[in-house]
């Protein structure tokens, strides 16, 4: 029996698991948050690790745990990504980031870890997590390459943007009740560079991974026949959401561009008033005042654009990537169901075969070779029965797998929606607040100027209004 | 928009306005059909304000205003004559409003023409001019146009003379300074107006792109349950924000027009300076001529030839003149000297008069300019404040909506 994708839990074969797991398991039993799910990653019996655990009644309880997990009080792992450094070797130049972990979780030997990781390592981690939990929603990584313009990989802004995104990526995983218990995650956070390299080399070989990929493609070509309505609804939503969030991403980037061009012109505007003041006597002071106001507004505009670029743009971009992740997750769920459906069809065919009156070629040959037709038929029946039994076992497993995948996705979907709402709401709120702040500051600048010019504000206003 | 001194005689008697603009078609000088705009000049006696008496009115087109202004320039060379609004829309922030037929342009021109008439009517000297009065009130103006055109043709050649390049030895320092000032002002105001137009263009872009937020929020709200309401109303505020820029920039156009008026005033300033140079030049020419004549007399009397002249050469070659010839020449010279002295005295008086009256008007102009531009800068600050207040309101509202998401 070949292993399905979800059976791969390579960590169990390495040496990074503490010898005495039993103690840990006891601990985890007492700890509500990690009741069942943490058992995934620490089970020694890797091949039998599968869906059956998760579809037990106990797992239903754990679905509810998704919601309880959200408050920050229970946070017991803190990760920061900072301190980018450039490394030069004979072959290449690359950037590593410091990953600092502080935790009280008992599956970690120490309470603090400091390691250096490069983008490749993050990419590996994401791949492993998606392999192990194909229908969970893993927060996206920043893109590998940036096509826009000629952005160098080693440009300061680019590195900073990436660093922030990597920081968010790890923290999202840490917040996830299932993903944060992944052994790969733990190794990523704690292993020294050479340890990680060794660790990465384990796992299914290239050929078996190819086999899995081929099967996945075959499944997606076959397509799923009876997708539950709720997943179709989710898929339609994801399509729409993807379009909207891409539009917002583009609109916001356009605003940043226009605002920057506005700023450029504004920078030339103020000095013109200063130039003019040089030719005037009575008006000189006033003109310089106006120039000063415009310059201060320039500074505020610069800050506002910066805020937009730092706060709203990255979040929108992240959710553009999220939309793609969601589409992939839905596809994978469909594939799991498709495989199950395929096997069901195969079973039905086999049953038909078994029950059919033979015009089986094999039977004919058998009779030609002198086999007793009655005996041949009986042999054939037995063979088919055996195959049917095997198929039934497989199908049972696949059915469990489908149910587990669906439940995992449903739970994570609720969770994702909540954090999407939270993230986008806070990003837009922050933008609106900054804009209010911007206008308030500019208002103060001009009002101060006006005060210095007038003796009686109300009288002036009246005259202005009638002219 | 303009601070007009109501004290001058004409405005005490009548109210002047340019009330409307209309399109007309007609044949032009080369007998081709053309479309042009005419403006309605309305005048009304001041004390009849309350009685609902309809004002007198007549229609005039832009070229007639130009005729009037040229007449004033030539007739009162010591006056800094108010400028007309642009003939063609030049420094614009939005490409659309570059069209002469564009209603916004026509409207702003109407305001500019009214402003011009009010400036002239409030000028202590110009307001008493008869031709100006006829311009405002006389309907049967064919004769006027004919006279003005003839006058203008004559005046044109005088204007050309004024504009011709010549060298003045001793110009009044104040006028030289004034010329420099008007050159500087022209340069800096042109630059200011250009940059302001570019800034306005960019600001327009920023606001309008936010309109896209409105559209996308609205679409997005349709697929969300909890966030739907918040998004939908936030979208409306984004639309309002995008729309608000039109009024903001329209107001700023008035500010730009105020600056433009003073940009065009620099031409009038330069014209006065040039007129001074012309009178000064004429004085210098006349004085030079007198000096020459004096020298000739001296040579004739003493018999010495100090300067090279053909006469001198020929007399050396062909002998001196007779005493009678000399006597005759002397008499002619004496006559010329007398005339010359008169001419110099006249020119001196003319020049002094000009400098005196011109400088009075220049001081008047400077005060007017300082006052007007001070007001303009204050109104600009007020506009900026209004824009900021609108921004605060919109984004505060949007923030409320985002909070509900």
From TrEMBL, chain A:
One term under GO cellular component: early endosome
Transmembrane segments: none
GO molecular function: cysteine-type endopeptidase activity; phosphatidylinositol binding
GO biological process, any: reticulophagy
The keyword Coiled coil appears for this protein: yes
Entry-linked Pfam families: PX, Vps5
Domain PX: 75-196
Entry keyword Kinase: no
InterPro entries reported in the protein's UniProt record: AH/BAR_dom_sf (IPR027267), PX_dom (IPR001683), PX_dom_sf (IPR036871), Vps5_C (IPR015404)
Regions annotated as coiled coil: 381-408
Swiss-Prot/TrEMBL keywords: Coiled coil, Protein transport, Transport
Family annotation (PANTHER family): SORTING NEXIN-4, SORTING NEXIN-7
Similarity section: Belongs to the sorting nexin family.
Entry protein name: Sorting nexin 7
Species name: Hucho hucho (huchen)
Automatic annotation (TrEMBL), chain B:
Recorded coiled-coil stretches: 323-350
Keywords linked to the UniProt accession: Coiled coil, Protein transport, Transport
Regions crossing the membrane: none
Keyword Nucleotide-binding part of the UniProt annotation: no
GO CC terms: early endosome membrane; plasma membrane; SNARE complex
SUPFAM superfamilies for this protein: PX domain
Family from the record: Belongs to the sorting nexin family.
Protein's recorded name: Sorting nexin 4
Lineage of producing organism: Eukaryota, Metazoa, Chordata, Craniata, Vertebrata
